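Quick illustration, no need to memorize.
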Amino acid sequence: MADLHKQSEREHEHENEPQDRPRSRTHPTPSARALELRGQGLRLRPWDAESDIDVAAWLRGYSDPEFRRWNTPLKPLDAMEDARESLRLRAEWEAEGKCRSFCVEDAATGAPLGHIGVNEIDHFIRAARVGYWVLPEARGHRVATRALRLAARWAFTDLGMHRLELGHALGHDASCRIAERCGFPYEGTLRGAMFEAGRYDAFRDVHLHARLATDPEPEPKPELEPGEA
């Protein structure tokens, strides 16, 4: 699972920008809630904060021990109302053009499988960060790999991004493999760039991967590697 807490940490990052720097443009939002991506057996569609099914899936994702091993949300989600408010907040960010959040579904059954987000969208420099998680019962079927490929293609072609970054906690080998498989090569290690698991007073290093719009499309690899989501 790639790191997801950066969006909240940088919510106000533009407040102290020099006044002569052009401001990041917000992405047009009239059809934002109608956006849907399909491919590779998946359907990516907006989360619905008013749907109990979506709220329950969001809560399960954030409560999952494997998620919490590799991510430390700034605000823990312990109940349905916490999850609902979290989804409503993401909807506000989307309306402001800061991110796009997708519920990943099985295209045939409609069952929720996980989440993928394009976060910290900067239309001036044309860069964003991607993050994802997969529900426990959906792991082992390359859901994260397939969803990341779909979301990355959309971000480059429709959203107009030039660079997408993906960060994960040092030691999260499965996320490393997913990133490489989806054309996000390792670029370096960021020291102390995210919280330790379950703590806000200690930090751990992050592997940084990135992909450019000019990079070649990654070749599909049919084999499933150990631990891949």
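Residues 5-31 have pLDDT under 50 and may be disordered.
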